[in-house]
Design goal:
alpha+beta, Hypothetical protein af1432, Beta Polymerase, domain 2, Ubiquitin-like (UB roll), 5-stranded mixed beta sheet, 21 helices, about 55% helix, binds manganese (II) ion
Length: about 475
């Protein structure tokens, strides 16, 4: 991709934006990195361009794409924030500064440096979500070219990617990216298992494709009598998720029930349900597999209808039904909402909902004092296994797995947490260390002037509850 192609790609989705700064960022980055090479031996600028290329694919706004081109200039060249401000203005300068790691020599160890850099980046993300999006594009390209680094370094980077960046991408709803980051890390961390699995999956491909085309034919036939707009997409699963499933179920690949995945995309919510009806009329649905993520969207705002049906030969077929817009959100997550500010996004309540949730989470993390504690909490909170618990009024709270009524109380409000004396789970009295499950309805009983107990620290699972309890104990001069 040269400058002309880059500009073309940008203009394709942001036709009315003056691209002057983007051209300038391109030239500036080429010049600043002129003397540098990547571990692969390529010009360093190739990396900057690759990062910008992902950002264009996600249709990010101009300052973000420019920051992608410039993201390493402060860290790796003699360019200063002041110079950037003069050349590109405050907004782009700030993005690049937020993406610049602190110098390792300031820290006692690599771990401390890593923790502190994460903390800075997450806090910068609270101010501007675009920071983490550029960082994810940066990490994607670093993982794609990781083979040129020494083994030990590869493993360290892959480990950080799979434990922090991939779950973060998931949290931001960027599922495609999450799968890619996981598979790239998986290949580094477990090369033999990766190659073995890749080969086995590839060997099954022709049979699966035959089944899929058979199903597609039957479905097209069934749908031909209706005028429901639709397109059918096959869905590939990432290798790491299969590997995880094998480990969870302690079964070899051959015994894993790996259903065929299909997506039906249509134009409206009403037609999603209409397609579901057609599907269930022509193919036997499997009991208890239907989930409606349209009327109950997930916290990362994923929306779709999920169902599993029996295919022509009795094979299981997992079907996801969604609108084009839901599809785009599912593919690109938070980035899908970051279209250039043309006015149509001004009233995007989903974006606000998403950002509020993220900001609130970061705010909780912010209370943690030490970088180490911060990073540990970040990891815990990013854990994919979440439970969704309801207040008696039907508000949903997402908690980490193993969360208790105390965690829930603090998720509702700090004062409710502080004065909590008991809980009802699904209308029955429950102990405060009860493990909550998704769908539980929890009511917290409080008593005025009641105070937190030190023992709660042994019970709570969420960063928020832990930090609030510690904070209270510290204020009262009680050692935690
Ligand atoms: Mn970089």
């Amino acid at each position: 991709m040269d400058k002309r192609v880059l500009l073309q790609k940008f203009v394709a989705y942001a036709p009315y934006v003056d691209t002057g700064l983007l051209e300038k960022a391109y030239d500036y980055s080429v010049k600043a990195h002129a003397e540098q090479a990547r571990a692969s031996g390529e010009d360093y600028f190739v990396h900057c361009l690759a990062v910008a290329s992902s950002l264009l694919e996600w249709k990010m706004d101009l300052p973000t794409v420019a920051a992608g081109l410039l993201h390493d200039v402060i860290e790796d060249t003699s360019v200063t924030p002041e110079k950037l401000r003069l050349a590109f203005g405050e907004e782009i300068m700030r993005l690049v500064v937020s993406l610049t790691k602190l110098d390792r020599v300031q820290f006692s160890s690599r771990d401390v440096a890593q923790a502190e850099n994460w903390r800075r980046m997450i806090l910068a993300t609270a101010q501007d979500i675009r920071v983490i999006i550029v960082k994810l594009a940066d990490r994607l390209h670093n993982m794609q070219t990781i083979g040129f680094l020494p083994q030990e370094k590869q493993e360290r980077i892959a480990h950080e990617t799979i434990s922090l960046y991939a779950p973060l991408a998931h949290r931001l709803g960027m599922f495609e990216l999450k799968g890619e980051l996981e598979d790239l890390s998986f290949a580094v961390l477990h090369p033999e298992e990766y190659l073995d699995l890749e080969e086995k999956v590839r060997a099954l491909l022709p049979a699966r494709e035959a089944m899929l085309s058979e199903f597609r034919k039957m479905l097209e036939h069934a749908l031909s009598k209706s005028d429901l707009p639709h397109r059918i997409l096959a869905r590939s699963k990432n290798l790491y998720s299969i590997y995880r499933k094998m480990q969870r179920q302690k079964k070899p690949f051959e015994e894993i029930q790996d259903a065929l995945g299909v997506r039906l995309i249509t134009d409206s919510v009403a037609n999603c349900y209409a397609l579901l009806g057609m599907l269930h009329t022509h193919f036997q649905p499997v009991a208890d597999t239907f989930t409606d993520y349209i009327s109950n969207p997930k916290l990362n705002l994923y929306k779709s209808l999920h169902t599993t049906v029996n295919g022509p030969k009795g094979e299981l077929i997992e079907v996801q039904i969604r609108t084009e817009e839901m599809h785009r959100t599912a593919e690109y997550g938070i980035a899908a909402h970051w279209r250039y500010k043309t006015g149509d996004t001004a009233k995007d309540s989903h974006l606000e909902e998403k950002l509020n949730w993220l900001r609130q989470w970061i705010e909780w993390l912010q209370d943690l004092d030490s970088p180490r504690e911060f990073l540990d909490s970040l990891k815990t909170d990013l854990d994919l296994y979440q439970v969704f618990v309801f207040t008696p009024l039907g508000d949903v709270k997402a908690l980490v797995q193993g969360a208790t009524p105390i965690d829930f109380a603090f998720a509702v409000h700090t004062d409710i947490g502080y004065t909590c004396v008991g809980a009802k789970v699904n209308n029955k009295m429950a102990k405060l260390d009860t493990e909550l499950k998704s769908g539980d309805i929890v009511e917290i009983l409080t008593r005025k002037n009641s105070v937190p107990k030190k023992d709660w620290l042994k019970v709570v699972k969420s960063a928020r509850a832990r930090s609030k309890i510690r904070h209270w104990l510290r204020e009262k001069g009680i050692a935690a």
